[in-house]
Amino acid sequence: MTAVNTLKDKKTFNVALVGATGAVGEEMLKILEERNFPIKTLKLLASARSKGKKYSFRGQSHGVEELTEQSFKGIDIVLSSAGGSISKKFMPAAVREGAVVIDNTSAYRMDPEVPLVVPEINPEDIFKHKGIIANPNCSTIIMLVPLFPIYRKAGIKSVKVATYQSVSGAGAKAMHELERQSREFLDGKPVTREILPHQIAFNLFSHNSQVKENGYNEEENKMANETRKIFHDEDIRVAATCVRVPIYRAHSEAIYAELKKPLKVSEARELLSKADGVKLVDDRDKNYFPMPIEASGKDDILVGRLREDISADNSLALFVSGDQLRKGAALNAIQIAERLIR
Ligand SMILES: NC(=O)c1ccc[n+]([C@@H]2O[C@H](COP(=O)([O-])OP(=O)(O)OC[C@H]3O[C@@H](n4cnc5c(N)ncnc54)[C@H](OP(=O)(O)O)[C@@H]3O)[C@@H](O)[C@H]2O)c1
User: Fold this and answer.
1) How do residues 32-54 score in pLDDT, each as one tens digit?
2) Could you tell me if 278 and 272 are in contact, meaning their C-beta atoms sit under 8 angstroms apart?
């Protein structure tokens, strides 16, 4: 990595979307339009399979081009979501051309040279970039945005979390798999598998990432390691159990946080009612709490079920639902880009 482009002197930007045809890429396109991102030119890049596919952006048709190392001439900002190996292969070329890359994959997240940023938490890290800024894992973002106000006020020693992750977290094809399997199941036909390792319709299973030597799968290890990096806190301990559930969109998480200092549930509720990026949904009388169906398509992470963790001292329990394609991926990346050009 060489060029450090601060993008300071420009008012409009040449933007390339890498992985434009994917679940995250399509969401990026929507959000760039919704937030009126100052785009001069837009380049949509994907594999050769998608060459020529058309997308409408601000009323104009844009054709998808095949990603190559030559794709980045004149590009200011690359929003990349085509998978880790594609980022490793192509993003150095983008940086050599002087672009700033905001990368949604896991390729660079734990690289000490690359900032890992959630704008509500560590926006100052954006400006330490050397060409690449990494967007954290979706489950990590959805956990940390609501935990951060609590962390700032009372400190957090450790977190135990169980996730309920939607199929869109595994990409556009996994969404089609849930739909197809549900039809097959209801029609009494054999359920077929193509993308996910087990039947997802009317079932759930441990997250479909590789189980590592410590017994935790990659997703669970990402939540632990990325939390330490984003909070700049080597002491915080996170134990996660990540589960894939038959939900189209939005991840939910049951979180138990062990605090350093006492914090009343009422104080936590007050903090979260004012925090950026979250919306309190916490009505005990109506038994109404965060649900993925209501988090889908929303920017805010819904947070509720606030209560004392009665199994431990100074410990708080909460439940969150957040749209992992938006705040867990595309929105977070575009918020980073907005800060970068501000
Ligand atoms: N889904 C989520 O909720 C989420 C959240 C956070 C981060 N992420 C990360 O974002 C990345 C993309 O996820 P996704 O869910 O959007 O996946 P996806 O729906 O499977 O889309 C993958 C995208 O990458 C493109 N691609 C694949 N191989 C390529 C190649 N050889 N050259 C150029 N482009 C290629 C695909 O293009 P074609 O259509 O041409 O194949 C498509 O646009 C992954 O690294 C994922 O871990 C995903």
Assistant:
1) 999 999 999 999 999 999 999 99
2) yes
Structure token pair of residue 140: 């990590």
Torsion of CA 105, 82, 128, 10, to 10 degrees: -150
62, 129, 207, 251: the catalytic one is 251
Chain segment 161-181, per-residue pLDDT in tens: 999 999 999 999 999 999 999
Determine if ligand 1 sits within 6 Å of the CB of residue 252.
no
| 20, 46 Cβ separation under 8 angstroms | yes
Contact 281, 318 (CB under 8 A): no
What's the predicted TM-score (pTM) here?
A: 0.97
Q: Is 54 in the pocket of ligand 1 (CB under 6 A)?
A: no
Backbone angles phi, psi at 230, to 5 degrees: -70, -40
Residue 208 in 3-state DSSP? coil
Active site includes 129? no
Catalytic site residue from 62, 138, 207, 242? 138
Contacts of 127 (CB under 8 A, 6+ apart): 6
Ligand 1 midpoint to CA 22 (Å) = 5
Site to probe by mutation for ligand 1, drawn from 17, 21, 88 as the one with most ligand atoms within 8 Å of Cβ, is: 21
Strands 132-134 and 156-164, how do they pair?
unpaired
20 CA distance to ligand 1 middle (Å): 8
Residue type at position 213: E
> For residue 187, what are the contacts with CB-CB under 8 A and spacing of at least 6?
none
Q: Does residue 3 contact residue 96 with C-beta atoms inside 8 Å?
A: yes
Are the C-beta atoms of residues 250 and 242 closer than 8 Å to each other? no
Active site residue 251: yes
